Amino acid sequence: MKEKMIKRTEEFVKQVMGRDSTGHDWHHIDRVRRNALYISNKEQFGDPFIIEMAALLHDIPDDKLNNSQEEGRYKLISFMKELDLPLQVKEHILEIIFSISFKGGNNPKVISSEAEIVQDADRLDAIGAIGIARAFAYGGKKGQPIFDPGLSVRENMTVEEYRNGESSSIHHFYEKLLKIKDSLHTLTAKEMARERHQFMEAFLTQFYSEWNGQA
Ligand code: ADP
Ligand code: NI
């Protein structure tokens, strides 16, 4: 019964986000799902079904993939309505999804520990080798330069500035990616983040030395 629901949810998510090229494709969802379940298992915390459902659906209402916030919410809520689950479980899944997005640091406070686990898994996918690949894929899609030494690093952005202000993909490392390791909730995710963080730092060092013509 739960297995069937997971399968159905996978199909729905694949159909909605399959061809996205901003780094939010099906494989991102699948990695977040697997990492969330791994963290939950390691921490011996959280209901695996709720975590898996929330991870699978977490980007459905994302503002980048919808014309408006309402449209995204509607898409998610209409799918959830059809599922044969107790209201309380549905509400918990929705609560996780609506509380995890980063959005330049202006996201609402995370409420449940399950939400912390899914948020950790989502944030882990934005760092390390995968995170680097996603940042440049997203930047290219948005039409922003790989790097622009003339721009300064932005602090305390509004959501609008975070999404549409002038920046470069290298700047995104300072505005978000290098901050992620200190924003994680679970010990398991913090451990997983260490190597990924070091890898990004090494990448930046190499990037600048090539940029400056020393490598
Ligand atoms: P979330 O995964 O919390 O929804 P975003 O939607 O902001 O976060 O970002 C999705 C992916 O795109 C992440 O890997 C993120 O690092 C990358 N990304 C977001 N904004 C930028 C940007 N301005 N430049 C480069 N990459 C970005
Ligand atoms: Ni995501």
3D architecture notes:
It holds the Pfam family HD. Residues 21-136 form the HD/PDEase domain. One of its GO terms (molecular function) is hydrolase activity. With 215 residues, the protein is an all-alpha fold. It has one domain: Orthogonal Bundle (Hypothetical protein af1432). 63% of the residues lie in helices and 0% in strands. It has helices spanning 2-17, 26-43, 48-57, 69-81, 87-99, 113-124, 128-142, 159-164, 169-175, 187-211. The structure holds adenosine-5'-diphosphate and nickel (II) ion (NI). Nickel (II) ion binds next to α2.
What is the fold's blueprint, element by element?
Elements: H1 2-17, H2 26-43, H3 48-57, H4 69-81, H5 87-99, H6 113-124, H7 128-142, H8 159-164, H9 169-175, H10 187-211
Helix pairs in contact: 1-3, 2-3, 2-6, 3-5, 3-6, 5-6, 6-10, 7-9
Bound molecules: adenosine-5'-diphosphate (ADP) and nickel (II) ion.
Which features does this protein show?
single chain, 215 residues, mainly alpha, Hypothetical protein af1432, 10 helices, 0% strand, binds adenosine-5'-diphosphate, Metal dependent phosphohydrolase, HD/PDEase_dom
Bound molecules: adenosine-5'-diphosphate, nickel (II) ion
Task: Kindly estimate the percentage of residues that lie in beta strands according to DSSP.
Answer: under 5%
Tell me, what is the CATH class? Answer: Mainly Alpha
**Second rung of CATH, namely the architecture:** Orthogonal Bundle
Radius of gyration based on Cα positions: 18 Å
Count of runs of 4 or more consecutive helical residues: 10
What's the N-to-C terminus distance?
Answer: 57 Å
By secondary-structure content and strand pairing, the structural class works out as mainly alpha
Mean pLDDT equals 90
Gross morphology? globular
- Taking pLDDT < 50 over at least 5 consecutive residues as the criterion, the unreliable ranges are none
What string, H for helix and E for strand, traces the elements in order? HHHHHHHHHH
How is the main sheet built?
A: none
Summed up, the domain count is: 1
CATH topology: Hypothetical protein af1432
